[in-house]
Amino acid sequence: MFHRKSNSQHENEGHEQLQNESKIKELEDAIGPLSGNSLKYCTAACLRRYLEARNWNVDKSKKMLEDTLRWRSTYKPEYIRWNEVAGEGETGKLYRANFHDRQGRTVLILRPGKQNTSSIENQIRHLVYLLENAMLNLPPGQEQMSWLIDFTGWSLRSSVPIKSAKETASILQNHYPERLAIAFLYNPPWVFETFWKIVKYFLDTKTFQKVKFVYPKNKDSMELMNSYFDEENLPKELGGKSKLDYNHEEFSKLMTQDDLKSAAFWGSDDKLPSYVGNGRSGAEVAPDPACHETAAT
């Protein structure tokens, strides 16, 4: 049975919305005049995410956003190109899926057991590239993405160093706030608990609450994951019905096309290759979705 909202509920929601809009304007004024990519980055949706990440405290949100703008001005994540990180993706350890979740969010699939390199710097650069790419392909009005992490083949030997895990968590939480909607850790082995006991201390409360463990024999955890994903889209390796067949060459072509979209949004640069590199190995990859005009907010 449906219940209509009372007038007081509508009034409270309207009041909260007005307060939030006021906070967004306050943060915009506090940041001051911007130009170039910083101006493109700091949309109203972007400011809202930073405010949400700091519980709508303008001063804390301002500091967080200014730190991000400094980081982006030096790291330049919007100018990383696929040909620079393609080697990291050869085994399909991280890629954008060819389906969305039930809310229309972009999905990233991570397979840590497929780790193929030893350079922490390159691994993080590869992750940042895929984060930017996922945001580039968010549907209009959608600000978040979902993660599916498949632990097939994972072992403590193949896990990333604790220092790297801490740096990765820092980048995700401090420079991509409120981008993660949910992260499902599918069938992690019991030895992962040792690694997790350390890593979880690097996560803030909001991020920690978005991480869900899923086990094939645990009905409740499977039902939770299926409430976010259509099992017809989920790969069999993740408890679904579709076939997982990562093709690095095809994914490379798709990423090279997306690099053109990114360059068109952020402005031209001289790092676009004139060719598509060959790939090897091999998940079905995402179709070529339309570019979201607020690509990396």
Automatic annotation (TrEMBL):
UniProt xrefs under PROSITE patterns: CRAL_TRIO
Gene Ontology molecular functions: phosphatidylinositol transfer activity
Highest taxon of the lineage: Eukaryota
Region (Disordered): 1-20, 277-297
Family annotation (SMART domains): CRAL_TRIO_N, SEC14
Gene3D superfamilies attached to this UniProt entry: CRAL-TRIO lipid binding domain
Domain CRAL-TRIO: 82-246
Composition bias type Basic and acidic residues, residue spans: 8-20
Pfam families tied to this protein: CRAL_TRIO, CRAL_TRIO_N
Protein name: CRAL-TRIO domain-containing protein
InterPro entries (UniProt xref): CRAL-TRIO_dom, CRAL-TRIO_dom_sf, CRAL/TRIO_N_dom, CRAL/TRIO_N_dom_sf, PI_Transfer_CRAL-TRIO
